């Protein structure tokens, strides 16, 4: 499911920008999870052995 959310936001720039600017949210995701998703898309996440930091 997480991969589908990332894929959707990467293909839909307008939706991505709305989430990034706080104008939309990802249903079922906490603020922390949303930030992790945005970091992954922006390429600023730190991944080590499959876990996000």
From TrEMBL:
It is found in: Secreted. Keywords: Competence, Lipoprotein, Pheromone, Prenylation, Secreted. The lineage of its organism: Bacteria, Bacillati, Bacillota, Bacilli, Bacillales. This is ComX pheromone. The gene is comX. GO terms for biological process: establishment of competence for transformation. It comes from Calidifontibacillus erzurumensis. The keyword Lipoprotein applies. Its main location: secreted. GO terms for cellular component: extracellular region. InterPro entries: Competence_ComX_Bacillus. It comes from the Bacteria. Interacts directly with the sensor histidine kinase ComP and stimulates its activity. One of its GO terms (molecular function) is pheromone activity.
